[in-house]
Amino acid sequence: MKLSVIGCGYLGAVHASCMADLGHEVVGIDVDAAKVAQLNAGEPPFHEPGLGEVLRRALDSGRLRFSTDMADAASARVHFVGVGTPQQQGSYAADLTYVDAAIDALVPHLHAGSDGPAVVAGKSTVPVGTAARLAEKIGDAGVLAWNPEFLREGFAVQDTVAPDRLVYGLPGDDAKAAVARDALDAVYASILERGTPRLTADYASAELVKVAANSFLATKISFINAMAEMCEVTGADVSFLAEAIGHDDRIGKKFLKAGIGFGGGCLPKDIRAFMARAGELGAEQSLTFLREVDSINLRRRQHVVNLTVHALEGRVPGKPVAVLGAAFKPHSDDIRDSPALDVASRLSGLGAKVRIVDPAAGPVLRRVRPDLDVRDSAHDAVAGAHVVLLLTEWPEFRDLDPVELGESVEHRTIIDGRNVLDSAAWRAAGWTYIGLGRP
Ligand code: UGA
Questions:
Q1: Would you place residue 392 in the very low, low, confident or very high pLDDT band (cuts 50, 70, 90)?
Q2: How many Å lie between the centroid of ligand 1 and the Cα of residue 267?
Q3: Phi, psi of 20, deg, nearest 5
Q4: 115: pLDDT confidence band, cut at 50, 70 and 90?
Q5: Beta strand 373-374 with 353-357: parallel, antiparallel or unpaired?
Q6: Digit-coded pLDDT (tens) for 397-432
Q7: How many other C-beta atoms are found inside a 10 Å radius of the C-beta of residue 220?
Q8: Distance separating the N- and C-terminal Cα atoms of the chain
Q9: Pairing status of strand 198-202 against strand 320-324
Q10: For atom 5 of ligand 1, which residue has the closest CA?
Q11: Which atom of ligand 1 is nearest to the CA of 11?
C-alpha cells in the first residue's frame, strides 16, 4: 500500500521505516529539512537500537523516502500523523499546534483513489476529544481513524512490528468506520496474521486507551517509589518488597523498579495533559491522584540531591560529583524530562562540579547543555569525584568494577539511583553504597 507518515520523530521515523520494511511504499514527511536529509542518507537522527538497519534496508528497497513537501504525500492511501504533542509552556495541557498544522497542511492533498477515500490515522498522543474535532476539520476530504501507538523507546522497532495490541478509534458513521478499519487492517495485515489482538472502538475510547495506559504505568512507578519512602523511614528494603509483591500475578513484577522515577517525552507530560483535560471536562476529581503520582516522582529527584548534599557533608560548591547517565532511560539518547539530567542540573545549580557521562546522550548534551561538563567515559567522569551517582542504568555502568573505579575517586561513595548495583560487591570494595529505599 502507499502510505505517508507525517512527523518523523521518535514515533514517525520508526513507523515509516518499519512499514516500508513490511512491504509498503512509504513517504515520511517532516518540516525539519536537516532531519529529512539525514533520514534519506540512512542515518537515524536519534539513538534507537535496530532502527539504522531497518531504515537502510527500507531505503535500499526503494520503498521508503523522506520529504519536506506535503504534496509528496498526495498519492498515499493511508496517512499516519505522528507529530509531537509536548507540554504547553506554563500549563499542564498538551500543545496541539503541530497536530493541527499537520492536518491543515495535509487536507488539501487528500484524494480518493480507485480503492476508496484517503484515510488519516492519528498516532500522536492527544487529549480526549481531539479526534472528533479533527474529523470535522477533515470533513469529506478523507476518513479519520485514531490509532494510538504504544512503543517504548529502546524497543521501538520491536514494538512497532510486533505490538501487544492494535487499537482503532473509528468514526460513528458505519460506512466510514468500515473504510478506516479495512484500510488499517490492510496496512497491518502481516501483524494481524500472527494473531495480534485488534480492538476497535469510538474515537474517545481509543484516545483514552493511550493516556490510561501511560497513567497506569506512571502510577505503578510512583506507587513503588512511595513504598521506597516508607522503606527509608523503617529500614526495610524496597527491592525485596517489589519482588515479594510481584509474585502475585495480579500485581506482577514489571514497572516496580524503585529509583529516581520516570521521565521522558511521554509519561510526565501525558499524565499532566490528562489532568488538564479532565479539568476542562469538569472531571478534575477523577484524576487528582495523578497529581500525587507526579509529586512522588519529582520528590525522588530532590531526595537524591539531598542524599548527595549529605554525602558531601553540606559543602557542595566546588566539589567534583560524577553523574553516570543523562538519558531518561538506557538504550536511548532522549533527555526530555530526564530525571538523571534534572538531578545533575540541580547539583550543578548548588555549585557542585558535575561531570556527566552517557553512552548515547553525550552529543545531544554537548549541543543543548553547553553549561555541563560532559565526559566521554565513566572513568574520566569519576576521576577525583567526592561522590558518584548512577542515574541511568546503562549495562556499561551496571558492569563497572568497584575495585578499579575506587582507585580513581577521592571518596568511595556511590548513590545508586536505579537500585541496580550489587551493593555487597561495592561495599566489599570499600565503598559507602547508598540505594533508594534500601537500608
Ligand atoms: C512509555 C510507555 O511505556 C510506552 O508504552 C508508550 O508508548 C510511550 O511511553 C509513549 O507514550 O510514547 P517510554 O517513554 O519509552 O514509553 O519509557 P518507559 O519504558 O515507559 O519508561 C519511562 C520512565 O519510567 C523511564 O524514565 C524509566 O526509567 C522509568 N521507570 C520504568 C522506572 O523508574 N521504574 C520502572 O519500573 C520502569
A1: very high
A2: 7
A3: -65, -40
A4: confident
A5: parallel
A6: 999 999 999 999 999 999 999 999 999 999 999 999
A7: 18
A8: 57
A9: unpaired
A10: 150
A11: 12
Nearest to 110 by CA among 66, 141, 144: 141
What kind and span of H or E run contains 303? Answer: helix 288-311
State how far the Cα of 97 lies from the Cα of 209, in Å rounded to an integer: 22
User: Residue 392's Cα: distance from chain center in Å?
Assistant: 14
Q: Which of 22, 45, 110 is nearest to 333 (CA)?
A: 45
- Ligand 1 atom nearest the C-alpha of 330 is 28
Residue 46, CA distances (Å) to 9, 148, 153 in order: 9, 22, 10
Torsion of CA 119, 125, 128, 132, to 10 degrees: -20
pTM of the model as a whole: 0.96
SS3 category, 252: coil
As a whole number of angstroms, the distance between CA 41 and CA 398 comes to 34
Beta bridge partners of 351: none
Please give all residues whose beta carbon lies within 6 A of any atom in ligand 1, as ranges.
Answer: 125, 149-153, 214, 217, 221, 255-257, 259, 261-264, 266-267, 270, 328-329
Other CB atoms within 10 A of residue 142 CB: 25
Q: What is the model's pLDDT at position 49?
A: 96
User: What is the C-alpha separation between 21 and 3, in angstroms, rounded?
Assistant: 12
Ligand 1, from 126, 150, 267: best to mutate by most atoms within 8 Å of Cβ?
267
Structural Rg of the chain based on CA atoms: 23
Among protein residues, the one with the nearest Cα to ligand 1's atom 34 is 257
Contacts with 347 (C-beta within 8 Å, 6 or more apart), sequence order: 305, 308, 316, 321, 323, 354
CB contact set of 24 (below 8 Å; sequence gap of 6+):
1, 2, 3, 63, 187
107, 138 in Cβ contact below 8 A? yes
CA distance 410 to 308: 15
3-state SS string for 1-29: CEEEEECCCHHHHHHHHHHHHCCCEEEEE
The atom of ligand 1 lying closest to the CA of 329 is 28
Q: What is the distance between the alpha carbons of residues 228 and 192, in angstroms, rounded to a whole number?
A: 41
Q: To test the ligand 1 pocket, which listed residue (15, 125, 152) has its Cβ within 8 A of the most ligand atoms? A: 152
Q: Is 266 a catalytic residue?
A: yes
Polymer length in residues for the chain: 439
What pLDDT score does 112 carry?
87
